[in-house]
Amino acid sequence: MIPVCFSGNKRIFEGLLLSVMSLAKNTDEELNIYILTMDLSDENTNFLPFTDEQMAILDSVLQEKNPASKTIKVDVTELYKTHLRHGKNHENGYTPYAMLRLLLDLVPGIPDKMIYLDIDTMCCNDIREFYDIIITDHDFGATKDYMGRFWIRYNYCNSGSLVMNMKRIKENGLFEKCRKMVCKKRMLMPDQTALNKYGNKLYLPFKFNEQRKIKADTVIKHFCKGIVFFLPFGFHIYNIKQWNRKKVHKSLKIFEFDGLYTKVDELKLKHPNCF
Question: Which of 60, 165, 200, 275 lies deepest, with the highest CB count within 10 Å?
Fold first, then answer.
């Protein structure tokens, strides 16, 4: 069994569905998908948790490949309100859902080892290779941030794809330290910066968090922000997600996920209220 964690709200369901479908497509393993979500609609009407109907759709696509696979929805509303809502990074360039993984140590029943993926990731090969990485002496395994290693510091990691030693994290209080930091200090990328500061990291090759072109050995493709330079001094920042299909085709020249797009369109017809 391979446990994988995502976090988000109901508006981003198409991205979550595509990412989960890509995981199932590329492995025969049983997948337990933990989905952290919360209800903050008292401050933003868009901040609603994933619905049970959306979870049922995820279960159906997972179990089509392996009947033992399942989703586990984890409502962390009260945990977030207690530990993070009143911090300095509650409102920043990202939604509050980006920080939910910092609550994992407080969630009962979380496995001792698990994968965390941002919703804007897609699996291209068997996720088992990622999960099997030995991290006994580290808090997590991560790949360097493609641009951050130049602009921030050489060993700065991208936290959108992690294999986590939750047993060690609970014992050494890593996430508690990170929560305190993001509450006290205003930051551009709060949870990622805190994890870089306090985490004992095992550095992994880019195939586990490919932030540029997909290669033959790519396991996880991350549709994060990128930059294109134009001579002599120009540049363009892009932020194309896997659900931005026209841009994925036209700008990124990625066609590997077209079969999954077709399946998503079929599900949209059956469950229009979920998209």
Answer: 165
Class of domain 2-225+258-274: alpha beta
Mean pLDDT of the chain: 93
Query: Could you tell me which residue, 148 or 53, shows the higher pLDDT?
Result: 53
Q: Residue 220's pLDDT is what?
A: 98
The string of pLDDT tens digits covering residues 217-265 is 999 999 987 666 666 766 667 788 999 999 999 999 999 999 999 999 9
Residue 237's CB is within 10 A of a number of other CB atoms, namely 9
Domain boundaries, the chain: 2-225+258-274
Which tokens sit at 241?
């997600």
Beta bridge pairs of residue 7: 36
Alpha carbon distance 60, 35 (integer Å): 15
